[in-house]
Target: Cation/H+ exchanger transmembrane domain-containing protein
Amino acid sequence: LIKKHRFYALPESAAAMLVGMLIGLIAKLASRSPADLAFLQFNPELFFFVLLPPIIFEAGYTLKKAHFFKNVLAIVAYALFGTLISTVIVGGLTYFLATAGLVSTIDASNPMESLLFGALISAVDPVATLSIMGSPELQCDQLLYSLVFGESVLNDAIALVLFKTFREYYDPESANLQGSDIPGAFMAFILVSIGSVIVGCVLGLACSFMYKHTALYEYPK
Model:
């Protein structure tokens, strides 16, 4: 409806959130006990392995490859260093607030817990911003759109790798990451990042080769 009526004052992502809030409110008002809402419980595995892959595929399929690869170094720099800086800053602020007693849900004696939260929260996806910038009425600069879109695609993967690396060194009983473990954690981050890129390229090339040499069967008229 937003695209049909060209109502660009409300981004599509905001409209989807409003619909979800409305459905949740109706379900909450219609339920008499928490057990009545059991059918609305969402399995995270369903999101990661069923709903998320088509979204990533659509983003890559509709990506303007010329603009992306023309600015790939800037995009990778924004995604890599931006996510690392965001993780360190958010994790440091969270640890400072925890030690000051302002945040009680974070263990102040374990800085790894703050870094885990920083890596988790640094995966920013500017869906609303991109939907506004992509509107034909705004006529946004294509370079700016490519940088924001490319960074938003890559920073999720970097944040996931960071979280996985921190999780391997996280011990709820103690601050398990020592100074001698930092090179190993850094190498694990680099290896997982490079390995993920290689796996993605191999699968992409294999799918491209398969689709190129696959013909749909045409039924005789």
Remarks:
- The radius of gyration is 22 Å.
- The chain has a mean pLDDT of 77.
- Residues 76 and 130 are 18 Å apart (CA to CA).
- The longest helix spans residues 182-212.
